[in-house]
Amino acid sequence: SDLIIRIGHQITNLEVLANLAEFADDFLSKSPTIQKNCLNQLIDQGLHLQQSKDDIVHFINKVLQHSSDTSDTERVLDKCRQLDKELYVKLVCTTHTEQRYSEI
């Protein structure tokens, strides 16, 4: 997973990063804890790329599709709320996180 994360830090395109996340999801499927950590770090990397907010939201949703753990979505939402309010609102709307609707 360290190699995947290091590769992820070199990527500046969300589509390529999403492909890497998909690979990591498949490759690390036998180790759920390592898989989750790797995908979370790739999402964090995507949050800091200079891309449109819509593209970032699409990337995050694509990666989160691989997770059945709602805590992953909550962690990403909390991080987005701190980083960028507009990104946070878009993500809440696209993830249909109804308990957060009152915040926006």
Summary of the model, kept short:
73% of the residues lie in helices and 0% in strands.
Question: Can you walk me through this structure?
Answer:
With 104 residues, the chain is mostly helical. Helix content is 73%, strand content 0%. Helix 4 packs across helix 6 (85-95) and helix 5 packs antiparallel against helix 6 (85-95). The protein is globular and about 40 Å long. The termini are far apart.
List its traits.
104 residues; mainly alpha
The global form is: globular
What value does the Rg take, in angstroms?
A: 13 Å
Distance between the termini: 35 Å
Secondary structural class: mainly alpha
Number of strand segments: 0
- Give the count of helical stretches: 6
Spell the H/E element sequence: HHHHHH
How confident is the prediction overall: mean pLDDT?
92
Q: Low-confidence segments, ≥5 residues, pLDDT <50?
A: none
Write the layout of secondary structure elements.
Blueprint: H1 2-10, H2 14-27, H3 32-47, H4 53-64, H5 70-83, H6 85-95
